[in-house]
Amino acid sequence: MFKNEEMEINLGPQHPSTHGVLRVKLRLDGETVTHCEPIIGYLHRGVEKICEDKTFFQGQVWTDRMDYVAAISNNLGWAESIEKLFGIEVPRRARYIRTMLTELNRISSHLLWLGTHALDIGAMTVFLYAFREREQILDLFEAFCGARLTTTAFRIGGLREDLPPGFLKQAQAFQDRFLACVDEYETLLTENRIWKKRTVGVAPISAEDCIAYGVTGPVLRAAGVAFDIRKAFPYAAYDEMEFDVPTATAADTYARYQVRVEEMRQSHRIVQQCIDKLPEGPVMAKLPKVLKSEVGEVYHAIEAPKGELGYYLVGEKGSGNPYRFHVRAPSFVNLQALPKMTEGKLLADVIAAIGTLDVVLGEVDR
Amino acid sequence: MNWLKAFNPSDIAGGMKLTGKRFRQVLFTANRRKVPMHFVAEYPEVKVKLAPRYRGRLTMIKDEQGEIKCVCCLACEKICPTQVITIIKGKKEGRKMPFPTRYDFEMERCIFCEFCVESCGFDSIILNHQFELATYNREDFSLGMEGSENMFENSAVGKFSVAE
């Protein structure tokens, strides 16, 4: 009879702090969470199955719509996994431009995370500052490929076109003011006592648990494991870039915030190196007219802003589309850790935990 | 000595100072500077400046004689990931190349990826710079051309948008 005092509530699927259509079923004892269960599938479109029906060329437009705040990272993974399947060598200039755009995309994804995460927790000012810089990055994307969000930026074998005239100047203008902007965000948050009260020690997850759940990306690095696919298995032009992998040891929300802010600085460094060292040459490799695959399978992982984004492709002989296509989406895998992070904690910390995992529901449900 | 920090308001003051600085800049210098401090476009009054590569609505191009350039190679129809283009091949008097008697474009499913323009070997279609594409009726999204009537131009869609 006394057990009835436990209350079951639904957080979402239309709650603004769940970053999309995530529904979290919570059982509460007073204000303490005793059971937490994320329920997904509200945005399922069957991307994997659709891509098996489309040609290798066409499939890219669906990867835009998985992690829609980091579409260029998704495009890069798709293009590179197919190049791996066919053994295509991408020209060096194209690899540099890809690296530059992907890093700009990482900055824009982290900026969106920073703005919305701070807004969830109660710091509204940062949202406006973060979106100011994000706007400039989206303008760069628009100048390069004509779209801001669903970019469809790359092609198999390189790029569709070279950089537009004036792009590097525009990118340099962004580079010149960005570091000062990161300092502004830090002024607003890092030492702020309200921010610290809401984040320090909130939603911890140890390195062992991270590895057991398969959690990657900034969440893993904030637990002290310096695992970054850009360093471990370099792709694009990352083997020619100099950058550090920021880590923290506290493994709480505050540590993840620090890791992501530092990652923005490192991305800024990579973009600067790409601008300075951009080689001349073609941007498209020589391709056969029609891509017909051989029997073979390939797994290619890249470091998306959220973690390890892997594409698994199986080729069928003489076929123009993949026989099997699977995405290892970082948001989906990271979301599994939510019950571990929140059970036994307060209800208000669930909001912080969802924010700090940086899930995008388009990628979770696919 | 951690409790002493509670009396030191420098963390809050730093944030307030920054907010005040930005507020002052926007309030006093917004309309006087050549490069304004604010990043927001006053949209319906002031048009947004689009990049030259912007991907808007699909349009057909005419050549110097005012004739539609499309020669029905069906490349755009084949490459389109969402199958929004349907072409019916036909002939026109005084023209060697095939002529589309019907070119259907279902814009409600279009995802503006520009694959069709990329595949076109005759430069007969482009994505123009229209972005205000909302209408009240579903039928208005069915664009295309039939006979000599080019419904791309007469469409009510995007009538408020900037000229090319």
Describe it:
The complex is a heterodimer of chains A (366) and B (164). Chain A is built from 15 helices and 8 strands. With 366 residues, chain A is α+β, with helices and mostly antiparallel strands. Chain A has a single domain, classed as Orthogonal Bundle (Cytochrome-c3 Hydrogenase, chain B), CATH 1.10.645.10. In chain A, a hairpin with an 8-residue loop joins strand 7 and strand 8. The termini of chain A are far apart. In chain B, a hairpin with an 8-residue loop joins strand 2 and strand 3. Chain B has helices at residues 2-5, 10-29, 75-79, 115-119, 151-154; strands at 58-60, 85-90, 99-106, 125-127, 142-146, 149-150. Chain B is an alpha+beta fold and 164 residues long. In chain B, the strands form 2 sheets. Chain B has a 4-stranded antiparallel β-sheet. Chain B is 23% helix and 16% strand. The chains are: A alpha+beta (366), B alpha+beta (164). Chain A binds chain B through residues 54, 57-59, 61-62, 125, 132, 135-136, 139, 142-147, 150, 152, 160-161, 164, 184, 187-188, 191-193, and chain B through 6, 10-12, 14-15, 18-19, 39, 50-55, 79, 81, 111-115, 118, 127.
Summed up:
The complex is a heterodimer of chains A (366) and B (164). By secondary structure, chain A is α+β, with helices and mostly antiparallel strands.
Primary descriptors:
heterodimer, A: 366 residues, alpha+beta, Cytochrome-c3 Hydrogenase, chain B, three-stranded antiparallel beta sheet, B: 164 residues, Alpha-Beta Plaits, 2 domains, four-stranded antiparallel beta sheet, 23% helix, elongated
In CATH terms, what is the fold-level topology of chain A?
Cytochrome-c3 Hydrogenase, chain B
Cα-to-Cα separation, first versus last residue of chain A: 42 Å
Strand content of chain B: 15-25%
- Describe the global form of chain B: elongated
Rg of chain B to the nearest angstrom?
26 Å
Q: How many β-strand stretches of chain A?
A: 8
CATH class annotation of the largest domain in chain B: Alpha Beta
